[in-house]
């Protein structure tokens, strides 16, 4: 199953991407939220409920009439998960990624947090902060946790992963280098596209053998394979869950292959007007324009009191 979120006049809806029997293409969406009120726009609730919810969703898909079918190119896709409990990532996790530093991979996996306000949809603009001159791309496989879990061994980790998607860990390298931790450089608002949908593991033959590629303005800049991870996805889940309880909806960005701008002799940093595309074999692609943000001061209105 491939689940996505999309915008409608009455707010975000949850949809399932379906193939046309005639063409075999991923050609239309079934609007699960409109077809059955049990399905909110939050895929975590469906994926975390196990086989019974998946069967119910499949039943809705099988029975859906034309009134609940929408063309894929006729909707605005949103980030498949809007506000995950946590957004985690790992650095220097591909063979060759350390080439720019002339060093060996870290002796221990380097995890860090990203703020969830960085998340945007698969076709939204990446907003370049005016305060950086070193904006970089990092095409990555992102996994989503589906079940609350702790101390999960690697050979059981697949049981707690609800699905996978494409991600781009856009990084402000100058901010990243200013602090002993990299959170600031990894967390600017509206800089972390994910999507275009969540693909459940039964649709993926092997998440550790997927081609992953990134293009900037049509030029191929990253060409790797998830087989080259140093700490694979199951090992990442095991290590993180040995420290703290993982929660449904948690996202883990699992590392990027070589080719980021910072690895070049003369880095070609992203700038407004650039277009970045990231594709992972069988999982779809992101396509994002880089635009210039602002630093306007604002404070939201107070919350309403009952």
Structure description:
- The chain has 306 residues and is mainly beta.
- The protein has two domains: 2-78, no CATH class; 87-292, Fumarylacetoacetase-like, C-terminal domain (Fumarylacetoacetate hydrolase, domain 2), CATH 3.90.850.
- The protein is 11% helix and 33% strand.
- It has five helices and 19 strands.
- The protein has helices at residues 32-35, 43-47, 51-63, 173-176, 233-241, and strands at 2-8, 11-19, 26-31, 69-71, 77-78, 87-91, 110-114, 119-120, 126-128, 135-136, 139-145, 161-168, 171-172, 192-199, 211-216, 219-225, 251-253, 275-280, 284-292.
- The strands form three sheets. Strands 1, 2, 3, 4, 5, 6, 7, 8, 11, 12, 14 and 17 form a twelve-stranded mixed β-sheet that branches. Strands 9-19-18-15-16 form a five-stranded mixed β-sheet, with no helix packed on it. Strands 10-13 form a two-stranded antiparallel ribbon.
- Strand 15 and strand 16 (219-225) form a beta hairpin.
- The chain is globular, with a radius of gyration of 19 Å.
